[in-house]
Automatic annotation (TrEMBL), chain A:
Single biological process term from Gene Ontology: cell division
Main localisation: cytoplasm
Function: Protein phosphatase inhibitor that specifically inhibits protein phosphatase 2A (PP2A) during mitosis.
Organism annotation: Denticeps clupeoides (denticle herring)
Key words of the record: Cell cycle, Cell division, Cytoplasm, Mitosis, Phosphoprotein, Protein phosphatase inhibitor
Family the UniProt entry places it in: Belongs to the endosulfine family.
Name of this chain's protein: cAMP-regulated phosphoprotein 19
Automatic annotation (TrEMBL), chain B:
SUPFAM superfamilies, sorted: WD40 repeat-like
Domain of life: Eukaryota
GO CC term (a single one): protein phosphatase type 2A complex
Organism per entry: Denticeps clupeoides (denticle herring)
Oligomeric form and interacting partners: PP2A consists of a common heterodimeric core enzyme, composed of a 36 kDa catalytic subunit (subunit C) and a 65 kDa constant regulatory subunit (PR65 or subunit A), that associates with a variety of regulatory subunits.
This protein's UniProt keywords: Repeat, WD repeat
Any one GO molecular function term: protein phosphatase regulator activity
Protein name: Serine/threonine-protein phosphatase 2A 55 kDa regulatory subunit B
UniProt similarity note: Belongs to the phosphatase 2A regulatory subunit B family.
Length: 114, 448
């Protein structure tokens, strides 16, 4: 059918004109695979296997809590700012919890609930 | 006019409501991560990446007319989960709500389970519309009355007040999952529920938070041998002993809890055989099942993999009874979809009330309605452009290659950042909730 032919020709390079939709499907996938291998020749032999799965299971890993807090701060564009509210001389007195800058509330109401 | 409960193509879908901000700058916390109707369909819950739950309630203007236009308005909203850091493993625990599941209603209050990667919480949502007034020893603002001024006894009475909806966490089920929870499912016995992570499934009792039973464990002795993970799990809607779980290799296992305490050996294994010569690098990745849902009847189950939706008859393990292509035109784009990680997107799927139509999402804010009884399908779009009140949604068409007809959109013009991963169908009526990245669309059947 002419429509089939057009579809194949405008796509990526395919070795031959496939006769059935099934073979067309498979050769499309294989063509895509060839493209990927061309870009990343070192792609592991077990593609959906251990590497990918292990990466998935390790999601959210940080070096330590400091690393996590820095990442969170940068994400929210909330770099730790030197407090400008206090005019006291540094070292003048021992800070109490009330003196420390308040943690900015990151828990804001959902926009769906407006 | 379509009969009640019939979906798909006799039904014309129109826009009803949209919730959420219009601006394009989407904060990560606002990304919707789950949508679920309760058992009556009166309540609709959403969870987002910021750990918040918003519940909408259906308000029918005219209860006598069954097809009257009903709107969903905000009923309750609360912060379900907060971000945590596991100091022992240096792992971040996201507050994103992975799943919400409602419990069947037993009394005036509503209960739902919400879960993030590690912790499941049982929330009670209750209404308060009366409060006691006229205490004997206290003033209305709480101050104690001067006891010397009290000469008579005043008995408090309940007086009506403005409706207040309160959400309180009743149970916290924690510390039972080493890996990330992907599913929760309430049992038909209304006493137990399961939670599944990548490698294990646990059985809980709703009343007991300090222990759970491990019923499936697919962790290999040596993690180097890991080839498969659990992607979804669900209890059978009527048989309290039966549940299924799907895997990243495209298989579904049905387990019977009566057979043994640890259900590592399946009772049934559903797998469509594949010709090994047809395998490509992508075969396994696109066969990974992202969602599994039993039909309301309990006779069938539906699975969603990257490109298709399959309906399985529980009596037949060797192949699905129906297969529907969701977006076959993406097969020629697998290379770029792998590079931008879209190939790993987890689409959900759902049944309509009488199991005649199934729905699933796609890219470009498209979603697909697949009518099983009439063997027809339609692609619709959730967009602000089609958001005029009661505007009928026009079917959309994607052109795979060659000449693009008018009104068609070419594959290369699709926006792969606009994904519809989560959809829900009202259990009885033709009302659907479709979540785009940060907006919730509600569509209803056209009423003449």
């Amino acid at each position: 059918m002419s429509e089939d032919v057009e579809g194949v020709q405008t796509g990526e390079e395919v070795a031959e004109e496939p006769k059935e939709p099934e073979t067309k499907m498979i050769s499309m996938e294989k063509a895509e695979e060839a493209k990927l291998k061309a870009k990343y020749p070192n792609l592991g032999s077990k593609p959906g296997g251990s590497d990918f799965l292990r990466k998935r299971l390790q999601k959210g890993k940080y070096f330590d809590s400091g690393d996590y807090n820095m990442a969170k701060a940068t994400k929210n564009k909330q770099l730790p700012v030197a407090s400008v509210e206090k005019t006291e001389i540094t070292g003048d007195h021992i800070p109490t919890p009330q003196d420390l800058p308040q943690r900015k509330p990151s828990l804001v109401a959902s926009k769906l609930a407006v | 006019m379509a009969g009640t409960g019939a979906g798909g193509n006799d039904v014309q879908w129109c826009f009803s409501q949209v919730k959420g901000a219009i601006d394009d700058d989407v904060a990560e916390a606002d990304i919707i991560s789950t949508v679920e109707f309760n058992h009556s369909g009166e309540l609709l819950a959403t969870g987002d990446k910021g750990g918040r739950v918003v519940i909408f309630q259906q308000e029918t203007e005219n209860k006598c007319q069954p097809l009257s236009r009903s709107e969903y308005n905000v009923y309750s909203t609360f912060q379900s989960h907060e971000p945590e850091f596991d100091y022992l493993k240096s792992l971040e625990i996201e507050e994103k709500i992975n799943k919400i599941r409602w419990l069947p209603q037993k009394n005036a209050a509503q209960f739902l389970l919400s879960t993030n990667d590690k912790t499941i919480k049982l929330w009670k949502i209750s209404e308060r519309d009366k409060r006691p007034e006229g205490y004997n020893l206290k003033e209305e603002d709480g101050r104690y009355r001067d006891s010397t001024t009290i000469t008579t006894l005043r008995v408090p009475v309940f007086r009506p007040m403005d409706l207040m909806v309160e959400a309180s966490p009743r149970r916290i089920f924690a510390n039972a999952h080493t890996y990330h929870i992907n599913s929760i499912s309430v049992n038909s016995d209304n006493e137990t529920y399961l939670s599944a992570d990548d490698l294990r499934i646990n059985l809980w009792h709703l009343e007991i938070t300090d222990r759970s039973f491990n019923i499936v464990d697919i962790k290999p002795a040596n993690m180097e041998d890991l080839t498969e993970v659990i992607t979804a799990a669900e209890f059978h809607p009527h048989q309290c002993n039966t549940f299924v779980y799907s895997s990243s290799k495209g298989t579904i296992r049905l387990c019977d809890m009566r057979a043994s305490a640890l259900c590592d050996r399946h009772s049934k294994l559903f797998e469509e055989p594949e010709d090994p010569s047809n395998r490509s690098f992508f075969s396994e990745i696109i066969s990974s099942i992202s969602d599994v849902k039993f039909s309301h009847s309990g006779r069938y189950m539906m699975t969603r993999d990257y490109l298709s939706v399959k309906i399985w008859d529980l009596n037949m393990e060797n192949r699905p009874v129906e297969t529907y292509q969701v977006h076959e035109y993406l097969r020629s784009k697998l290379c770029s979809l792998y590079e931008n990680d879209c190939i790993f997107d987890k689409f959900e799927c759902c049944w309509n009330g009488n199991d005649s139509v199934v729905m699933t999402g796609s890219y470009n804010n498209f979603f697909r309605m697949l009518d099983r009884s009439q063997r027809r399908d339609v692609t619709l779009e959730a967009s602000r452009e089609s958001s005029k009140p009661r505007q009928v949604l026009k079917p959309r068409r994607v052109c795979a290659g060659g000449k693009r007809k008018k009104d068609e959109i070419s594959v290369d013009s699709l926006d792969f950042n606009k994904k519809i991963l989560h959809t829900a169908w009202h259990p009885q009526e033709n009302i659907i909730a479709v979540a785009t990245t940060n907006n919730l669309y509600i569509f209803q059947e056209k009423v003449n």
